[in-house]
Write a structure and sequence with these properties.
Bound molecules: zinc ion
Mean pLDDT: 91
Shape: globular
Number of strands: 3
Oligomer: single chain
Helix content: 25-40%
Radius of gyration: 15 Å
Number of domains: 1
């Protein structure tokens, strides 16, 4: 299995403001879903995309979190070997989903291609 390495990462520290567990990220997923749906219907999304910009700060370039200094999670890790109700399964699933969201934000031009 080939693991894909993102050049951005997500803070794993649950106590950090930029954590993957931040409650404001719920809104990110619902917005991504809404915009993806609009794209499928060939609606114009250019006016809505800027609303995703505030979430860009959760996707950090570098090795350590700019807020708390923890290592960033940057590789989608397998969950198949974990029990689906386990804490680790939930943690990895959330982090993986966020990395996927990061790729989507990049595709829409919200995240830069190179470290700023
Ligand atoms: Zn942090």
């Amino acid at each position: 299995m080939v693991l894909e390495m993102a050049d951005f990462g997500i803070c794993e520290n649950p106590d950090c403001q930029l954590s993957y567990r931040s409650l404001s990220l719920t809104a990110l997923f619902s917005r991504i879903n809404a915009i993806s749906g609009m794209e499928k219907r060939k609606d114009d999304v250019s006016g809505i995309l800027p609303h995703l910009k505030p979430f860009a700060l959760f996707f950090q370039f570098g090795i350590h979190c700019s807020r708390c200094g923890e290592f960033l999670y940057r590789v989608i890790q397998p969950t198949a070997d974990l029990q689906t109700e386990s804490e680790e399964y939930i943690r990895r699933s959330q982090l993986n989903a966020l990395l996927e969201a990061g790729y989507q934000l990049r595709a829409w031009g919200i995240l830069p291609f190179d470290a700023p």
